[in-house]
Amino acid sequence: MNFRILGRFLGALLLLESIAMAACGLFAWIDSLSHDDDPYPLFLAAMITAAGGAMLMLGGIVKIDRIPRREGIVVVGLGWVLCGVFGSLPYMLGDPSLPPADALFESVSGFTTTGSTVMTDIASWPRGILMWRSVTQWMGGMGILVLFVAILSYLGMGSKSLFRNESSFQTGEATTARIRDTAMTLWYIYVCITAVCAVGLKLMGLTTYNAISHAFTVVSTGGFSPHNASIAHYSHWTNGWLIELWLSLFMVICSISFLFWVVLLRKRWKRLKDDEEGLFFIVLCFASAVVIGSGVAASQGMHPLTALRHSWFTVTSIASTTGYGTVDYASWPGFALILLAGLMLLGGCSGSTAGGLKVSRLIVFLKTARFEIVKAFRPNRIFRMHVNGNALGANDRAQTMVFVSLYAFIILISCFLVALVEASNEMDMITAFGAVVATLANIGPGFGEVGPAENFGHLLPVTKVFLSLLMILGRLELYAMLVLFMPSVWKRY
C-alpha cells in the first residue's frame, strides 16, 4: 500500500468538502440578515476540514499518472468514512449541538443519501446547518468520488478505479469515452435535473430555500426535509397533490440509471429498447401502488383516489430509497408492509442515485433461477442471458448470486447484533430488522420504533456508529468497504 498516494487524494477530497461547508457558511451569513442563523460553526468546521486535508496532501506529495487498483478502492472506502467524520463537525459545533455518535450518524446518513435521522425537532435547527444537511445528500447522490473524478483532471487513467468502485455504474458502458468525460456528463445531467426540480417547486409556491433544499434531497433520493413532518407539511395545501406528484416524478427519474439519460443526451435511440431494468422498475412501482392502494382503501375505508395518492407517493419514496413521508405506513395492512419491505431491499436501478440491491441484480437472479430449473430436466440446452442488452456469462451470474447471498448474510448478522446491543432498550426484532434494512439499503425510515413517524435518536451510541458503517457499506455496495478490513490490503510494497 502506497500511503503517500492515499494521503494525496484523501486530502484533496477533504479540501473539496471544506469548500462545500464554506459555501453553506456563506449562505448562513447572508441568511442571518433576515433569520436567526449563525454561520460561524460552518466556517469553523470548514477550516478544520481544510486543515486536515492540507496536512494529508502535504504528507502525500508524490508524482503519479494513475491510481493503482488497490489504492483506488481504499481511497473510495476511506474517502466516504473521512467525509462522514468531518461532515459531522457542523452538527457538533452548531446550536443545538449533537453528541459525537449522533453527529456522525446524521452526517453519514446525509452523504450516503440514507435519510435516517436522530433529530427530533428539525425545524429548531439553524437554516445554514439544515442547508449543509441537504448539500451532503446532493453531493453523495451522484457520488462525491464521481464529483472528485469530474473536476480533478490530473486523475487521468487512474480515475477508472475510483469510478468503478465508488458506485454501481457499469464502467463497461462508459468505455466509449474517457471516464472523466463520462463523469462530467453525469454531473451535467444531475445539475440540470436538480435545477428543473427546484424551479418547479418554486412555481408551486415553495420558498426558494425550501425549493432548493427539497430539490437537493429528492434528486439524490436522500429524503432529508427541513420540516418535521417531511412532505406531509405540504399535503394540506390546495396543490399538495401536485407537489407530491412532482416529487414522485423526480424520484422515479433519478432511480433509473443516469447512463440511460446519457444515452438520451447522445441520441443513441437504439439503446433505449434494451433498458429492461428501467421498465421493470416503473412497472413494479405502478403495480405495487395499485395493490397497496386497493388494500388500504378496502381496509381503512379511505377514498380510492386518496388511497392511491398515498400509496403511489409511499411506493416511489420507498422503492427509490428516498424516504420522504406523507403518511404513517406502519398502520397499513400487513401485506402492504411486507411489500414495502421487499421494495426497500430491492431499491432502484444500477447507476442511479438510489440504494438497495438494485433491480438489475433481481433480474439476473430470476433469470439464473429459471436457467437452473430448466437445466435440471434439459441439461444440454444452451442459454444466452442478456440484461439491458449486455450479455452475461457464468462469471457474471456467479458474482450476482454471491452478492445477494452476502447481502442477506449481512442483514441476518446485523439484525442479531443490533437486537443484542439494544437488549437493554427491549428492542423487538421488527425494529431491529427495520433499522438494519433502512440503513444498509439507504432507505431512511424503517419499521417499529424507527418507522416513518419515529427517528433513530433513542438508540445507543454504539448502535448509531454501527448503523453508520452499514450506511457506507450499502452505499458502496459492500466490497469497497469490506476490503478495508482485509489485513493483506494494508501491506506496504
Automatic annotation (TrEMBL):
Protein location: Cell inner membrane
Any Gene Ontology CC annotation: plasma membrane
Record GO terms (molecular function): metal ion binding; potassium:chloride symporter activity
Chain positions recorded as K(+) binding sites: 113-114, 222, 321-322, 442
KW Transmembrane helix (keyword) present: yes
InterPro entries in alphabetical order: Cat_transpt, TrkH
Major place of residence: membrane
Record protein name field: TrkH family potassium uptake protein
One family name in Pfam for this protein: TrkH
Coiled coil: none
Alphabetical UniProt keywords: Cell inner membrane, Cell membrane, Ion transport, Membrane, Metal-binding, Potassium, Potassium transport, Transmembrane, Transmembrane helix, Transport
PANTHER family: TRK SYSTEM POTASSIUM UPTAKE PROTEIN TRKG-RELATED
Similarity comment text for this entry: Belongs to the TrkH potassium transport family.
Topology in membrane: Multi-pass membrane protein
Organism: Oceaniferula marina
Residue stretches spanning the membrane: 12-30, 42-61, 73-93, 135-155, 187-212, 245-266, 278-298, 335-357, 401-421, 465-485
